[in-house]
Amino acid sequence: MSGKNVVLGVSGGIAAYKACELLRRFTESGHSVRVVPTESALHFVGAATWSALSGQPVSTEVWESVHEVPHVRIGQQADLVVVAPATADMLAKAAHGLADDLLTNTLLTARCPVVFAPAMHTEMWEHPATQENVATLRRRGAVVIEPAVGRLTGVDTGKGRFPEPEAIFELCRRVLDRGPDVTATDLAGRHVVVSAGGTREPLDPVRFLGNISSGRQGYAIAAVAAARGAKVTLVAANTELPDPAGVDVVRVGTALELRQAVLTATATADAVVMAAAVADFRPATFATQKIKKVDGVEPPAVELVRNPDVLAEISAERQRPGQIVVGFAAETNDALVNGRAKLARKKCDLLVVNEVGEDRAFGSANNEAVVLGADGSETPVPYGPKAALADLLWDLVAARLA
């Protein structure tokens, strides 16, 4: 969606220089961007840079161009306000409704979706005051992206790193696509868990039993949930995809590792979406050395044992009252018949049934499915991008959570 009025707020953190890349992505996508920095942000990137990149005037004060009433008009005319980076100080001001400069006034007058991309040291992010401010903003419908984990200023490493501008842009694009209505952040205040990718069960140090799942559908589900305001935990099995902005990623390899990570995360989850392709079986034994091929000798038989059924387990033992559980069923024939049988067997609330085929399901950017409900509902999802399926799925989950 192009041609929107975007306000890019920039607060005073070292990550301010990365907002230049975010600005470029908005302008190259056809959006009109007004940059509103704080006074401290100009210590990192000057007003001339913002003005040249956006093609619009830049000011930090409410006293400039007073006849245009900028402290009111900028927020009123915006289709999206994104503050990147958002410092601990900016989050505190926004949560408490302070208005001592042009950016904080803009936040008070905006009636469009608002996205904050925090960046700060780990101790500042984890401080109870910051966490309460974040919770307040999310409760009001703002999207506060979870910061990334990595190298911070100096030699420090931890959670608080500014997410990659490309990932922030993708999240903002999804927010814009949903429009200005109140359902844009209908998952605000919710914690959701999503599994993605395919597990691998090792045979020996160089071989494994696995599947061809790329993780794209699970990642799309996680990214859309973050754009709709949820706190997202993504349990990722053997994927090569970049982390979605605002998502806590837990990396796993085997089905047993995935089970443990999912059970840990679901203790506080409002909804769980099991999109990962989890191996039904694993080798009974692991060869500590590579299994060699010997001429004239038949290879040894591989004995398999059954893996735990994670979907059935979390469906049967809901860790929170009202928790919604969603499963996936990739079928090659009689998709709906097999899907209904699986839904009854697993006892989940929703089951996404997709038939594996060319440019569908595994490894593809697109998908086509039918979402079956335990209440007897049947919702078709037409062929299209996996993000579209994710949006419709969260519509169904949000309705049940409500």
TrEMBL record:
Q: Which transformation does this protein catalyse, written as a reaction? A: (R)-4'-phosphopantothenate + L-cysteine + CTP = N-[(R)-4-phosphopantothenoyl]-L-cysteine + CMP + diphosphate + H(+); N-[(R)-4-phosphopantothenoyl]-L-cysteine + H(+) = (R)-4'-phosphopantetheine + CO2
GO cellular component terms attached to this protein's record: phosphopantothenoylcysteine decarboxylase complex
Which InterPro entries would you find in this protein's record? Answer: CoaB-like_sf, CoaBC, DNA/pantothenate-metab_flavo_C, Flavin_trans-like, Flavoprotein
So, what pathway does this thing act in?
A: Cofactor biosynthesis; coenzyme A biosynthesis; CoA from (R)-pantothenate: step 3/5; Cofactor biosynthesis; coenzyme A biosynthesis; CoA from (R)-pantothenate: step 2/5
Instruction: Pinpoint the Flavoprotein domain residues.
Output: 4-174
Provide the GO MF annotations for this entry. Answer: FMN binding; metal ion binding; phosphopantothenate--cysteine ligase activity; phosphopantothenoylcysteine decarboxylase activity
What is the protein name stated in its UniProt record?
Coenzyme A biosynthesis bifunctional protein CoaBC
Q: What organism is listed for this UniProt entry?
A: Streptacidiphilus jiangxiensis
What gene is behind this protein?
coaBC
